[in-house]
Design goal:
With 484 residues, the protein is of the alpha+beta class. The protein has two domains: 259 residues, Aminopeptidase (3-Layer(aba) Sandwich), CATH 3.40.630; 211 residues, Alpha-Beta Plaits (2-Layer Sandwich), CATH 3.30.70. It has twelve helices and 25 strands. The strands form six sheets. Strands 9, 11, 13, 15, 16, 18, 19, 20 and 21 form a nine-stranded antiparallel beta sheet that branches. Strands 1-2-6-3-7-23 form a six-stranded mixed beta sheet, covered by helices on one side. The radius of gyration is 24 Å and the shape is elongated.
Length: 484
C-alpha cells in the first residue's frame, strides 16, 4: 500500500526508499536494493567497498552513439528527530504522510535530501524516456564530508557531462558554484571530582535549525551558543561546576537543542532570576527568526555527586563561550552569496573530554585556512587540541557550460519561465567529480524542499513532479537533433 502515487515512478521509488533505513554509514541495505534493481533489469553496475553504486544504461533508440551523461545523487540521509520521537533510524521505516501538498515524516527528517535525486535516477532507468547512455552514480556518506564521492574511481565513468541531482531548495534554480570546506573536532581533556553543591539543568529547545550551508545566512539561533551564554551568566553569580553538556547532532546541521547540567552555590531564587532575565533578552534578540525558542532552567532531578572543578569548569566554559559560529564573509561580486562560514555543530562531555564538532565552509581555500588557524590558536589558548578532516573542494563557476545551457532551455520550455542560476554556499559533490574527471561540464537540479536536516523537512509534491519533467526534457534535448 503506497501513500504516494505509485503510478508515478519517481514518487514510487522515493516512497520505497523511505522504507529502507539509510542514514549516513548505514547505506548497505539501500545499496542491496539498488543492486537488485539493476540485476532485475539486466543493467550493468559497479558496487564498491563503501557501497557506492553506479548503474549503467545504454542510450535509447537514436541516442545510442551519443556521449554518456552522468547523473548523480547521494543515498544517505541526515537522521534528526524530535526529542519525544521514538523512531529508530537503524531499523524503522520513516512514517511519511502528505499534508497541504507536501510530503513529511512524523517526528523525523524525511530524507528528501537526497532521496529525491535517487528516485529520479531510478525512474529514468525504469522508463522508456529518450536519453543518451547513462552513468547513474549513487554515492554514500555525503553528509559527513562527501566520503563516498572521494572513493569513486575515474574508470567508473566515460561521461564528460554531469548533472548533480542534490540541489533541493527552490525547485526553480540550478547551481553555478558550491563551497569547499572541512570538518573539525576540538577536544579538551577534563576530569571529575566530588561535588556537594546542588545541581541545575538548562535545556534550550524550540529552534528551527537547518542546513549549515543553505541556512547559515538566515541568522538562526544556535542552541549551543545560547546555552553557553546562560552558563556564563550562572557562573558569574558564584561558585560554578559543570556536570553535563550535550547538544547538536550533525556537523552540517545548525543545532536546535542543547542541555547542560551544572552545580552552583547561588541560591535558587537568584539563579532563576538571572537565567530567566537573560533568556528573555535572547528571545527578544531572536524574536523574528526563532519565535519558538524555549529555555528551561530548573533544579536537576537527580543527584550530581561529581563535577568538574571550578577551575576546569571556567576553562571549559571559556572555550565554549568563545567558539565562533555563523557567517564570516559575503561576496561583493555575486549578490547574496556567502563566501565563508563556521558552524559550531555539536558538543559532548564524557568522563575524559569535552568535544566540539565544526563544519567550516569557504569559497576560497585561503579563507578556509584562515578560519582553521584561528580555531587552532583558540583551542591552544584554552588547553584544547583540534583535528581537521574530510576536506571537500569547491566547484568553480564555468560561464560557458553547455550542460547548464541545455538545462535552462529545457526548464524554459517546460515551465515558460527562466531558470534562476544560484551561486551556492552548500558543499556539493560537484567539486569532487570535477577533481575526479578533468574537463567535466556540470549543472545541478532539484525539487522544492524545505527545512533540510530537521524534523520539519518537507518535499513539495507538485515541484517533485514538475522537476522530473524538466529532467526528462533535459535528457531528451541531448539527442542528436539538438546537439548538432
Amino acid at each position: 500500500m503506497y501513500i504516494l502515487d505509485e503510478t508515478k515512478p519517481h514518487q514510487k521509488y522515493f516512497e520505497e526508499m523511505t522504507r529502507i533505513p539509510h542514514g549516513t554509514c548505514q547505506e548497505k541495505r539501500y545499496a542491496d536494493y539498488l543492486e537488485d534493481f539493476a540485476r532485475q533489469r539486466g543493467l550493468s553496475f559497479v558496487r564498491d567497498a563503501m557501497d557506492n553504486v553506479v548503474i549503467y544504461q545504454k542510450g535509447t533508440p537514436g541516442y545510442e552513439n551519443l556521449p554518456p551523461v552522468i547523473l548523480q545523487a547521494h543515498t544517505d540521509m541526515v537522521c534528526e528527530k524530535n526529542q519525544d520521537c521514538g523512531h529508530n533510524f537503524e531499523t524503522d521505516a520513516l512514517d511519511i504522510y502528505v499534508e497541504d501538498g507536501y510530503v513529511k515524516a512524523r517526528g523525523t527528517t524525511l530524507g528528501a535530501d537526497d532521496g529525491v535525486g535517487c528516485a529520479y535516477m531510478l525512474a529514468i532507468l525504469d522508463s522508456k524516456l529518450p536519453h543518451p547512455p547513462l552513468e547513474c552514480a549513487f554515492t554514500v556518506q555525503e553528509e559527513i564530508g562527501l566520503k563516498g564521492a572521494f572513493a569513486l574511481k575515474p574508470e567508473y565513468f566515460q561521461g564528460k557531462r554531469y548533472l548533480n541531482l542534490d540541489f533541493g531548495g527552490l525547485g526553480n534554480a540550478t547551481g553555478i558554484t558550491s563551497a569547499g570546506g572541512i570538518l573539525a573536532d576540538i577536544t579538551r581533556p577534563v576530569s571529575f571530582a566530588e561535588n556537594t553543591m546542588p545541581a541545575y539543568r538548562i535545556f534550550v529547545t524550540g529552534l528551527f535549525g537547518g542546513h549549515s550551508g543553505s541556512s547559515i545566512h538566515k541568522e538562526k539561533g544556535n542552541a549551543l551558543k545560547i546555552c553557553a551564554r546562560l552558563l556564563e551568566a550562572a557562573r558569574q553569580e558564584g561558585a560554578f561546576r559543570l556536570v553535563r553538556l550535550e547538544g547538536g547532532e550533525k556537523c552540517n546541521a545548525i543545532p536546535r537543542e542543547c542541555e547542560a547540567v551544572f552545580a552552583s552555590s547561588v541560591p535558587q531564587p537568584r539563579l532563576r532570576e538571572v537565567l530567566e532575565t537573560l533568556a528573555e533578552q535572547i528571545r527578544r534578540e531572536l524574536r523574528f527568526q526563532e519565535p519558538g525558542l524555549t529555555v528551561l532552567a530548573e533544579p536537576f532531578a537527580q543527584p550530581a555527586p561529581e563535577a568538574l572543578s571550578e577551575e576546569e569548569s571556567l576553562a571549559a566554559l571559556r572555550l565554549f563561550y568563545l567558539l565562533p559560529t555563523g557567517v564570516r564573509g559575503r561576496s561583493v561580486e555575486i549578490e547574496g552569496l556567502i563566501t565563508a562560514s563556521e558552524n559550531l555543530a555539536s558538543v559532548r562531555m564524557n568522563r575524559e573530554a569535552l568535544e566540539f564538532q565544526y563544519c567550516i565552509r569557504a569559497e576560497k581555500r585561503s579563507a578556509q585556512e584562515q578560519m582553521e588557524t584561528e580555531l587552532e590558536m583558540l583551542a591552544q589558548l584554552c588547553g584544547a587540541r583540534i583535528r581537521t578532516y574530510s576536506y571537500f573542494p569547491s566547484w568553480e563557476y564555468n560561464p560557458d557550460s553547455q550542460v547548464r545551457k541545455v538545462l535552462t532551455e529545457a526548464y524554459r520550455e517546460q515551465t515558460g519561465r527562466e531558470m534562476e542560476q544560484l551561486a551556492s554556499h552548500i558543499g556539493l559533490e560537484c567539486g569532487v567529480f570535477c577533481s575526479l574527471i578533468p574537463g567535466l561540464d556540470v549543472a545541478t537540479l532539484g525539487a522544492l524542499t524545505e527545512n533540510a536536516h530537521t524534523p520539519e523537512e518537507r518535499l513539495h509534491l507538485a515541484s517533485f513532479d514538475s522537476t522530473f519533467d524538466v529532467l526528462a526534457a533535459f535528457l531528451k534535448k541531448l539527442g542528436p537533433e539538438e546537439t548538432q
